[in-house]
Amino acid sequence: MTGFESFVSEALAKQGNSNLLRVSNEFEQVSATKLVFDGKSYINFSSNDYLGLATDFDITEFTKWISDGQSLAKPAVSSGAMASPLVTGNSQHHKQLINDLLKAIDAPSSFSGILFGSGFSANQGVLNALFKDKSKEQFVYQDKLNHASLLDAGTKLQAAGHLVQKRFKHNDVKHLSQLIKPDPSLNQLVVTESVFSMDGDKSPIKDLSALARQVGSLFMVDDAHGFGLSALAKGVTDIDLNDVDIYLVTFGKALGAQGAALFARRSIIDFLTNFSKEYIYSTHLSPIQCETVRFNLSKLVAAKSEQFSEQGLEGNEQIKPKSCCLQLANNIAYFRKIATENDLPLLPSDTAIQPIMIGDAQTTIEVANDLKARGFWVSAIRPPTVKKGQSRLRVTIASKHTLSEINELVVVLNSALQKRLLNLGLENSIKRTSETVSLNHE
Predict the structure, then answer these.
(1) Residues 48, 59 contacting (CB under 8 angstroms)
(2) Is the pLDDT of residue 391 over 60?
(3) Domain containing 233 — which CATH number?
(4) Buried b (16+ CB within 10 A) or exposed e, 375-387
(5) 291 and 216 share a domain?
(6) Which structural domain range is residue 333 located in?
(7) Phi first, then psi: what are they for 158, rounded to 5°?
(8) pLDDT at 232 over 80
(9) Alpha-carbon gap, residue 173 to 126, rounded angstroms
(10) What is the C-alpha separation between 201 and 194, in angstroms, rounded?
């Protein structure tokens, strides 16, 4: 056995022994609320298709949208960009998508945009480019619960001597104020997510922005899990782009597609065009994917308009609103109501991401398997995605879930938790884990 073969074998064995081994399942069918695996059907509570736009995608409707002149696509439009963006991969399709998004997010007139193949690539691309110079004193300040794409980039840049990375306590503006340097001559960047992907809670964006402005730092928001989903926002985001210097949108959640876009002042976008290797050296997003995002964005904008013609239906269990945005808000409110009534260990989230805190990785896997046996697919989240002792079930609510599906999930989940915890004598430990996580993310 070679050195690498031994290394690989030992690493996989260690993962297995720690109940942390991951596998990539192959599903026969997947939608926002249903999936089929190994011939068995499940109710899906693990999808990021929060508004059902991927589930509802209709190729016939999309083709008609193209033929009616809503799209720049022609019948012979290519399935791929055929080159990187600075060679011949950029097109009118890409430009129109950026323009549509700029309008949808109500961006300041000074803003422009740039497209990436994924949110991971975009986050890495912006940090790697902004902090490419080793000769300057540079700092990045990240929420401790930021996405791996952000934290990984900061860690590697620090190891290479490009910057100092400081991680502030989760959503703790006071702690950030103690770390950040009040010197506008320094290259400094504060980075947060709008909605945190594992806890489902929201960032204090206004307060973070005010602090960044006060000390002369740039401020970046990753809006992957927030874009398009607010029941209160009149537009596709409830973030005022005047408060943000760099703004990330991904297409794989509310927009039901694939890819990502970064928005910032034109000078920053020009800088990324020249220095972001992740942008320069990747084949560009395909034109047909650009048109798919535009098509779904038009449906999202229409849904937001419809939402505000249905004001007053929020939380009404008797009337099903037409707007997918309000349907989602209703479903989240209903889930939290009945989960609280059943004393489930929730975190304080009013978003589509509803973690059920368990703590122990093995117990979390067992509860997830119990749910599968009863026909429910819910993801078990374990270290290193979350801290040791904070394993959880990550329930994601979609607009297309029915109230009966949500109700049945809570009943089955309550039964599975009681069974496992009583068997292990841990009936009080989960509630303590939930309380600890909600109070302390150090």
Answers:
(1) no
(2) yes
(3) 3.40.640.10
(4) ebbbbbbbeebbe
(5) yes
(6) 22-51+320-439
(7) -65, -45
(8) no
(9) 23
(10) 8
Answer yes or no: do 38 and 74 share one domain: no
Query: pLDDT by residue (tens digit) across 93-151?
Result: 999 999 999 999 999 999 999 999 999 999 999 999 999 999 889 999 999 999 999 99
Q: In what order do the strands lie in the sheet with 246-250?
A: 111-116, 260-265, 246-250, 218-222, 187-193, 138-143, 164-168
**Reduced DSSP (H G I as helix, E B as strand, rest coil) percent helix, strand, coil of the chain, to 5:** 40, 15, 40
CB 190 within 8 Å of CB 217? yes
Alpha carbon 296 to its chain's center? 17
Residue 419 shares a structural domain with residue 349: yes
At 107, which amino acid appears? A
135: which residues sit within 8 A by CB, 6+ positions away? Answer: none
Token readout for 208 is 């973070």
CA terminus-to-terminus distance, the chain: 41
Q: Give residue for tokens 């016939």.
A: 60
> Which pLDDT value is given to residue 53?
96
Is 181 a residue whose pLDDT tops 90? yes
Q: Which two tokens stand for residue 179?
A: 């770390």
Whole-angstrom Cα distance, residue 50 to residue 41? 20
- The two tokens of residue 279 are 């942008």
Average pLDDT over residues 196-218: 97
In the prediction, which pLDDT does 75 show? 46
